[in-house]
Amino acid sequence: MKVKTAQKTIKEIIADGERFLASKGNENARGEAETLIAFGLGLARVDLYLSFDKPLTESELQKLRGYFKSRVQGKPLQYITGESIFRYLKLKVNDKTFIPRPETELITELVLNIIKKGDKVLELGTGSGAIALSITKEGGVKVDATDVSKDALEMAKANGKLNEVDGVKWLESNWYENISNKYNVIVSNPPYVSLEEYNSLEKEINEYEPEIGVTDNNNGFKCLKEIISKAPEFLEDKGHLILEIGYEQQEGVDKLLKKSGFIDIRFEKDLTGKIRFAVASFEGTGASGTE
Ligand SMILES: C[S@@+](CC[C@H](N)C(=O)[O-])C[C@H]1O[C@@H](n2cnc3c(N)ncnc32)[C@H](O)[C@@H]1O
Asked: Which atom of ligand 1 is nearest to the CA of 226?
């Protein structure tokens, strides 16, 4: 006779999943366990609580085991669920798209605080479209967004549709190569991780995320230098350049900005108190200011 074992309930599986992730060093074990289980069961996370006593079938359990295994092997949560939440957007992501980070929500805020009605914004290196779509949705201004990666641009376009945000012009371009307009604001979160640092990053990043989204394969300043030095050509007078940078890059970025004639340079911190953003004004092509 076959002995029927009691099937585990959602509540028990959440507890098991949390313990398992925590035992592997996951610092957000409860949250991630709930996200994976909700995703696997096709439920909203909040609905897990309404179905706590529901027993799971063997095939559901097997699917969940697969997700937990991938997670502890280092696959980012967002690549398992295929989505990432950014400000007011739900964004699709895959392994060809850089996962938007929480701190990038702050650079978006810096742009929103600077733009005025009728401004034109250029985003360089849009990835999933997180910044460009948020600025369009929340700021109501015209945004052109570029990426050198066709795959990223496809995802960004799909994210525009998914979130019903129209009006972003998506352009395949190696930084400014295919840009001919001028803008009031240029914003970018470029790959600023040096090759040396990249090689020592956790597996979750350097084995899963697209390399082109993370490192410049150089000293960390290659893309920043290109973006800063050519920005004056594409900025309207009194325009702004807003950049996300590494927390040890303030001095180098300050020098590059001054060299290209930027004034009113300020650096902003992320939520952990580290300098992560540069905001600079461009007086205009008529003004001097280069060192
Ligand atoms: C750090 S990710 C930022 C993505 C997105 N803006 C965000 O903040 O989540 C950098 C992005 O720059 C793009 N990129 C890298 N090199 C580029 C280049 N030469 N021209 C344009 N985009 C580039 C990458 O494909 C990637 O999407």
From this structure: 19
Which residues of the chain register pLDDT less than 50?
1, 287-291
**Protein residue with least CA distance to atom 9, ligand 1:** 100
Cβ–Cβ under 8 Å, residues 36 and 17: yes
3-state secondary structure of 199: helix
Is-contact 168 145, C-beta < 8 A? yes
Instruction: Classify 168 as helix, strand or coil.
Output: coil
Q: Note the pLDDT tens digit of each residue in 32-60.
A: 999 999 999 999 999 999 999 999 999 99
Q: How far is the CA of 242 from the centre of ligand 1 (A)?
A: 14
List, in sequence order, every beta strand (DSSP E) within 51-139. 83-86, 89-92, 120-124
- 244: β partners: 277
| CATH (one of 3.40.50.720, 3.40.630.30, 3.40.50.150, 3.40.50.10170) for 83-282 | 3.40.50.150
